[in-house]
Amino acid sequence: MARKRSKVILREKEKILDKAGIEKIIKRLAHEIIEKNKGTEQLAIIGIMTRGAHLAKRLANAIMEIDGKQPPLGTLDITFYRDDLSVIAEQPVVKKTDLMFDITDKKVILVDDVLYTGRTIRAALTQLLDFGRPQFIQLAVLIDRGFRELPIRADFVGKNIPTSQKEIVEVRLEETDGTDEVVIMEKENNQ
Amino acid sequence: MATNPSNKTKWNKKDLLGLEELTKEEIELVLDTADSFKEVLTREVKKVPTLRGKTVVLLFLEPSTRTRTSFELAAKRLSADTISIAGNSSSIVKGESLTDTAKNIEAMNVDVIVLRHMAEGSAYMLSKQVDAAVINAGDGCHEHPTQALLDIMTIRERKQNIQDLKIAIVGDIAHSRVARSNIWGLKKLGAHVIVCGPATLMPKDVEELGVEVSYDINDAIKDADVINVLRLQMERQKEHLFPSIREYIRLFGIDKERLTHAKKDVLILHPGPVNRGIELSADVADSPYALILNQVTNGIAVRMAVLYLLGVQKGEKQK
Question: For B108, which of A97, B140, B184, B237 is 20 to 30 Å away at the CA?
Fold first, then answer.
């Protein structure tokens, strides 16, 4: 069975954030999280693979710098919980979920890079609740680009970016892409 | 562990018929995916919704407890629906052919058929006739891919890498699909494989698979990293393929004393069920060398990985 996909060419349209910009946002989010939760008591940071996990680690470090205590850190791979497994062309490569602590009664900060349709977050919430019963879950994202398909919103937003659905927001991080930046890519359908 | 998250291999096979047809990268993809599923099995809720709405049929036309149970549990852990059909309780006894049975099952819109059958090549034949993904759970003396995958996963967990390990497979090589699948898989991953057993239970031209052949057990397990001990099928004695059980124990049975020839940290695998005191002495079977129960645990993770890789693809194909 041949998998045919129209060739999509991506063109860089605009650079939204650079290294310094991302750093500032992480610091600000760390302050906001501590303020809203009145400290770091019972706090746990859980990032969604892959880039959310790296951001979660940076956030945990930033919180450590402010408060002196490093909250427990975990990563979630939501592949098994996706609702689009039977529609996407190839099944995604499964990465590891790593939650070495009990989340029951924790104040969980869920971290992802881009909030878009909300479906990833839905999958992450379902999965988290299979692990235990946290006190609550708050959502922190670097970028909120709109176009929600589910009633989900973030508690902490790095930057709101108005986009069109033809565009793709790419978060590039040192750990995975060798550079820290956020850019908007535009699709050109070329057939 | 040896998980390699940068494994970019894509799975594009409809079926899993044997390890002969898989590439090294595809084998590693299954093993890496299985590592992720093993983590799921340690959770409090040992179930993920990945294959919700999919149907897996377990068509076992030859007796099996552990493989069928393992597949069934793997499918249930993935939230798939399972139907189990055993040979003696199905229309097979009324003379229905495998093809007809399969066509009928497929007309019920199933996504995956797991087949255990006494005839070599049956899974291959079935895969050509149905759109559902077919997983070979043992076809005669040919292949038993998921068993070999779980064996390799168990070795990899302890030794990190298969490359250059010396692995001895001991017993009835001729009638063993486990041995054949292991040879294919281990050779592809770069192991040095040596097979050992009575000459009457050694397949002709087995060297062509790239293995070394030995008829002396002490020689075969000398400096071995892993010994995979096969189950002795008692019915073979009636076929006069070996003179007596006692002689077999004396020449090929693995006991503590014999193990001194192998490496100090040798691993013992056995596909089960063990004939205690025959191919393995009881003290070896219960020793820390033996990873028989680890194999059983890993079997579920491997089968979840295979069901995931094949089962997810099915929905996409129907589109």
Answer: B140
Instruction: Tell me the shortest Cα–Cα distance from B8 to chain A, in angstroms.
Output: 7
CATH number, domain B24-144+296-318, options 3.40.50.150, 3.30.70.270, 3.40.50.1370, 1.20.1560.10: 3.40.50.1370
Closest chain B residue by Cα to residue A101: B43
Is B51:B80 a contact under the CB 8 Å cutoff?
A: yes
Q: Which residues pair with B133 in a beta bridge?
A: B112
| Chain A residue nearest residue B304, CA to CA | A80
ipTM value of the model?
0.71
Q: How many Cβ atoms are within 10 Å of A178's Cβ, its own excluded?
A: 8
- The answer to whether domain B24-144+296-318 and domain B145-295 are alike in fold is yes
Chain A CB within 8 Å of residue B11 CB: yes
Q: Where are the alpha helices (DSSP H) in chain B?
A: 24-40, 66-77, 98-107, 122-129, 145-159, 177-188, 217-220, 235-238, 245-252, 256-259, 282-285, 292-318
Q: State how beta strands A8-17 and A181-189 pair.
A: antiparallel
Does A2 touch chain B if contact means CB atoms closer than 8 Å? Answer: no
pTM: predicted TM-score of the whole model, two decimal places: 0.85
In this structure, whether the domain defined by B145-295 belongs to CATH 3.40.50.1370 is answered with yes
Q: How far is the C-alpha of B245 from the C-alpha of B248, rounded, in Å? A: 5
H helix or E strand, kind and range, residue B235? helix B235-238
- Nearest residue of B to residue A92 by CA position? B10
Domain boundaries, chain B: 24-144+296-318, 145-295
Domain edges within chain A = 20-86+94-163
Comparing alpha-carbon positions, the chain B residue that sits nearest to A129 is B45
Record: contact A86-B48, CB cut-off 8 A: no
Q: pLDDT by residue for chain A (191 residues), tens digit each? A: 344 455 678 889 999 999 999 999 999 999 999 999 999 999 999 999 999 999 999 999 999 999 999 999 999 999 888 888 767 666 677 788 888 899 999 999 999 999 999 999 999 999 999 899 999 999 999 999 999 999 999 999 999 999 999 899 999 999 999 999 999 999 876 54
For A80, the closest of B35, B50, B313 (CB atoms) is: B50
B8 touches A: beta carbon within 8 Å: yes
Q: Which of B235, B234, B227 is nearest to B285 (CA)?
A: B227
Please indicate whether, in this complex, the C-beta atoms of B312 and A91 are within 8 angstroms of each other: yes
- For the stretch B101-126, pLDDT in tens is 888 888 999 999 999 999 999 999 99
Structure tokens at B98: 């495998």
Q: For residue B35, which residues of chain A lie inside 8 Å, CB to CB?
A: 96
Q: A–B: how many Cβ contacts below 8 A? A: 66
Query: Can you tell me the distance from the alpha carbon of A135 to that of A107, in angstroms, rounded to the nearest whole number?
Result: 5
Output the CATH code of domain A20-86+94-163.
3.40.50.2020
